[in-house]
Amino acid sequence: MAEPLRVVVTGAAGQIAYSLLYMVAKGDVFGPEQPIILHLLDIPVMMGVLEGVVMELADCALPFLRGVVPTDDPAVAFKDVSAAFLVGAMPRREGMERKDLLGANVKIFKVQGEALDKYAKKDVKVLVVGNPANTNALICSRYAPSIPRENFTAMTRLDQNRAQAQIAAKVGVPIQQVSNVIIWGNHSSTQFPDAAHASVTVNGQTLSAPEAVKDSAWLDTVFVPTVQKRGAAVIAARKMSSAMSAAKAASDHMRDWFLGTAPGRFVSMGVLSDGSYGAPKDVVFSFPVTTKNGKWEIVQGLTISDSARKSLDVTGKELEEERKEAIAVIEA
Ligand SMILES: NC(=O)C1=CN([C@@H]2O[C@H](COP(=O)(O)OP(=O)(O)OC[C@H]3O[C@@H](n4cnc5c(N)ncnc54)[C@H](O)[C@@H]3O)[C@@H](O)[C@H]2O)C=CC1
Ligand SMILES: O=C([O-])CC(=O)C(=O)O
């Protein structure tokens, strides 16, 4: 029997965590037979709500959930954790861009970077979900110098899942028949959802996504903006931001990182940029990656069209601006 894995979820009393905790506790992320001890962090005023979440986790009667540690103390929350879902942060409301949350949220990720540095395992894998996720992940990594910077990632998997779903619906195939859609750049409306390298299996035959879709105007004028603005569309409809789908994406991201991507498949993750594909260095940029033995690697050698180049530059520039703003907020 494997040793229990300690996993922290921050914002544990919030709406994403409400779906995510069940997925993690029932074995969707680390494997169905991996015992888990869940550390649940939220702020002091949410401790009553968190008590209810703890009751419900017990009532789920999950065989591999071996312990639950609810707390408002980062020292307890981050102690000896091997995986960290950093969800706790303010969500945006209608009419806001995600970067409008920098002022409210970035300091949380400085404090949590420091706590990870002090208390977590040195090989902890960190997924930042709280927005603006890419820049929060960058700041978090900067305040955790004893943990390798490649262990800090930001979530663009929800955008990838949205993109895959749009293409599957357009072609009329089940979702698993669409692979290798890429999200480049920032988890914001400047992101570039790219179907050029994606494949779709139709009636047993694997085609490139543009061949399967057979409608390049749809790809440029419907697919791209729909994915870029999907978060805002959900907020407009629900009056709250995506939660169930965000939890599923967080679970997909961490599972693929821990357990590896399937041969021939890649996924999108916000990772520390090494300048691949002309992206700016030292920002957390979403790239296509493969994962193996707990490590990610950027997929190299994909052709970038002139119009894709322009889109990559726009989203890269936004990340550089966010980095500057985040540093100003922290140093103020
Ligand atoms: N990267 C992505 O694809 C997505 C990111 N998000 C972001 O995820 C974040 C959380 O969203 P929701 O769960 O819907 O929000 P929510 O408001 O329902 O829950 C957030 C929770 O975080 C807690 N919290 C605040 N500061 C904290 C701190 N310093 N330490 C620990 N907990 C803290 C709050 O008390 C609250 O319980 C938001 O920033 C949202 O914009 C949401 C959807 C997708
Ligand atoms: O749009 C938002 O603010 C929440 C989010 O990040 C998403 O749904 O992608």
Short structural summary:
It catalyses: (S)-malate + NAD(+) = oxaloacetate + NADH + H(+). By secondary structure, this protein is an alpha/beta fold. Helices cover 42% and strands 20% of the residues.
What key phrases describe this protein's structure?
globular; 2 domains; three-stranded antiparallel beta sheet; binds oxaloacetate ion; 42% helix; 11 helices; 332 residues; Rossmann fold
CATH superfamily of the largest domain: Lactate dehydrogenase/glycoside hydrolase, family 4, C-terminal
What's the total helix number? 11
The largest sheet, given as strand count, sense and whether it forms a barrel, is: 6 strands, parallel
| Portion in beta strands | 15-25%
List the secondary-structure elements in sequence, H or E: EHEHEHEHEHEHEEEEEHHHHEEEH
Biggest sheet: strand arrangement = 3-2-1-4-5-6
Q: Please tell me the overall pLDDT.
A: 97
Tell the overall outline. Answer: globular
Bound molecules: 1,4-dihydronicotinamide adenine dinucleotide, oxaloacetate ion
Query: How many beta strands in the DSSP annotation?
Result: 14
| Rg over C-alpha atoms, rounded to the nearest angstrom | 19 Å
User: What CATH architecture of the largest domain would you give?
Assistant: Alpha-Beta Complex
Query: What number of domains?
Result: 2
Distance between the termini: 50 Å
EC number: 1.1.1.37
Protein name: Malate dehydrogenase
Family: Belongs to the LDH/MDH superfamily. MDH type 2 family.
GO molecular function: L-malate dehydrogenase (NAD+) activity
